[in-house]
Design goal:
The chain has helices at 30-40, 99-108, 112-120, 127-140, 151-154, 157-168, 175-185, 194-209, 214-228, 233-243, 252-264, 271-281, 290-302, 309-322, 328-341, 346-359, 365-377, 383-396, 402-414, 422-436, 442-454, 460-466, 469-476, 484-500, 531-545, 607-618, 628-631, 637-648; strands at residues 3-6, 17-18, 55-58, 124-126, 552-556, 562-569, 575-576, 586-593, 622-627. The protein is α+β, with helices and mostly antiparallel strands. InterPro entries: FAST_2 (IPR013579), FAST_kinase (IPR050870), FAST_Leu-rich (IPR010622), RAP (IPR013584).
Length: 657
Amino acid sequence: MALITLRRNLCHLSDFRIHGALAGLKTQRVNCVHKTVKEHLYPWFWSLQLEPVRVRFHHAHSKKFHSGNGNDLHPVGEPVFSQAHAWDRSEHSVKNVDEQIFYRRLNSFTSSEEVLHYISTLQTLPDTMAAGALHRVCEMEKNDDDQRLPKEILENSAFQALCNQFAQDPSNLSNTGLVTALQALTLYVDPQSRLLLSLLAECQHRLEMGSLDIHSLCILGECLIKLQGPGCSTLDLIIYQLQGENLEEFTPEDIVTLYRILQACPEKVDQTFLHKINNFSLSVVSNLSPKLLSQILTALVVLDQTQALTLVIKLGKYVVRHIPHFTNEELKEVLEAFIYFGYNDRFFTEALEQHVASLCLTLDPEVVSKVMEYCSRKLIFSKPILNAVAETFVCQSEKFSPNQTAELMEPFGKLNYLPPNASALFRRLENILFTRFNYFPPKTLLKLLHSCSLIECHPVNFMAKIFSPYFLQQLQGEEPYLDRLSLAQLTQLFLTAILECPFYKGPKLLPKYQVKSFLTPCSSLETPMDFQLYKSVMIGLIDLLGARLYFASKVLTPYCYTIDVEIKLDEDGFVLPFTVDEDIHKRVALCIDGPKRFCLNSKHLLGKEATKQRHLYLLGYQVVQIPYYEIEMLKSRNELVEYLQRKLFSQNSGGHW
């Protein structure tokens, strides 16, 4: 292990001395030192004036690539920093610097200047710690808007000393010191800089010699992906060597780093090896941090590991424990993965409810939208989440983009729910639509307005616009025709205008844009009938009415809706054969509602099903709901017949058979 010695009286130090394995390196002039550092960093660093600095580089007696104690410590994927630890002494030798205390100290700092000042107080420092400090500085200064380190950092003598010593003789660095320094520099340094190329060359040499340990292979793999892309040929050798390692020797952090590498180059993945990783990962899930949990879930999505549901389920159980500790980005990744794998769990929903209800006003709009998408996709009817999101939108609607606004509002219609502040919520939405109507993509706008109509918040003020030829042309775009779902939504909105908004006098939807049926594959505004439930009801109806002749199934009405079972009654309330088309006084529409027509694990009807029943009633049908949970309570055939008799021929219905 290499030890970097840093003296406090920097203004008097002008040479580099190397002891132990390197013997005597000749004294260099200060300007030579500065020239070396400049050549190894970004070109924009060359013109800076440097302070004199003297660094002594000590090496372990062993010339092997591993550290002196055989344990390469930090970082694993990235430096691991714990909580702050009290540290009162200003100057310490390496013998007194415990590694864990050192990393805790690094983590306690709030700026890179504090890190560098602390480093300058140390006499000697192992190369692993020096690399960790370098990584910490670069990590703290990371800025997506600027790929350069601040000038004051580049001019800092301790920072210069760190960079220069890693450039002097990389062959004497430990594996961890080498790859961690490389990892730190990939954040900012020009990929063609001499310093970076020197470290890469040494890594390449050790890779070809088979001298890199598992952790170093993982870090090097990620560095190469960042510097040269997933198509890098050297990456094949790294993956090959990792495949030959015993998974039992991987730390949990290394396992997640391996997932990230495979995620970046899915075409290089051996499915048998990936299957082994998935199975082994079951044993390390309990040791993963919130960040690593989100990363492994994201990797499983990218790698399309739909067969690894056992792993996803176990990850989900531990996600519940960490929900309060996820960052916004991490929580978004978790939700995206659960949506992708179709995962839902009662305990996760309860934890998510508590988290959103308590922190909704501080959550990122993208996370709020993703939470609503998750509830919408999984049909989770959660009043705490819906109410909290509604309140957030009323208070902070300006933070949401048009797409996020639509994603946030659509679940209210889909899940058939009006929050307590519905009037304020839809008043705010209406104001946004008035001022930003043209900023909404046409299909997004149509879905949003259609969703509002499902909960009887009819967008009357915007119907004239969406039925206009101009909007319909925008909706179609460059496609030869409008997609089936958009046509169905337009048709149902127009039917809503006729049935529920008689005061609407604007443009009508042209017949060529109207569909004949709302029940179509992939674009249905109705949920298909549950066949097993229908068979049970059909048996009871035959017993009750005396023959199959007296009811029809799957009847398509002139109003686009498909009725599960239709029964015709004459003026005296007697049941007519379904083939009769004359003297029909009343039509009874039986809605045989299976579990898929309700929100998940609830008796709350979905918005589209509630709208269908509402419209059928307005069209003159006697609507009779037959929900699955009532049928499941019946224990015999006689009870079923009695149940149907009560439903169909109650005293106020006027029906007979």
